[in-house]
């Protein structure tokens, strides 16, 4: 009995969401690239750290990632429906 990783869900929802926003922002290309790399490291590093520290099983991390993807997709869908 275990729960999905909240850290993994947050990594996708928050950091990947910021990554999407940064890619659509009107920033200079070098700044956008550096910020995208840092956010990408967070998106990959946080779930990996949960596994390497032994805080969660692989299925917990995958469940958290799927939950985060679903939450981010729902948030983007709501935003796009109100943006029109």
Overall description:
- This protein has 84 residues and is mainly α.
- Helices cover 82% and strands 0% of the residues.
- It has one domain (6-83).
- The chain has helices at residues 6-24, 29-52, 58-83.
Instruction: Name the overall outline.
Output: flat
Kindly, what is the distance between the CA atoms of the first and last residues, rounded to a whole number of angstroms? 43 Å
| Helix count from the secondary structure assignment | 3
How many distinct folded domains? 1
What radius of gyration results from the CA coordinates?
Answer: 14 Å
Order of helices and strands: HHH
Q: Helix fraction?
A: over 70%
Structural topology:
Elements: H1 6-24, H2 29-52, H3 58-83
Helix pairs in contact: 1-2, 1-3
Concise description?
The protein is an all-alpha fold. The chain is 82% helix and 0% strand.
Which key phrases capture this entry?
mainly alpha, 84 residues, 0% strand, 3 helices
């Amino acid at each position: 009995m275990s729960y999905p990783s909240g850290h993994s869900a947050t990594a996708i929802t928050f950091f990947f969401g910021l990554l999407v926003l940064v890619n659509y922002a009107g920033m200079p290309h070098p700044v956008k690239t550096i910020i995208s790399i840092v956010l990408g490291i967070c998106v990959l590093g946080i779930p990996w750290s949960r596994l390497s520290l032994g805080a969660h099983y692989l299925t917990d991390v995958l469940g958290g990632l799927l939950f985060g993807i679903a939450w981010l997709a729902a948030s983007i869908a709501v935003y796009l429906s109100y943006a029109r």
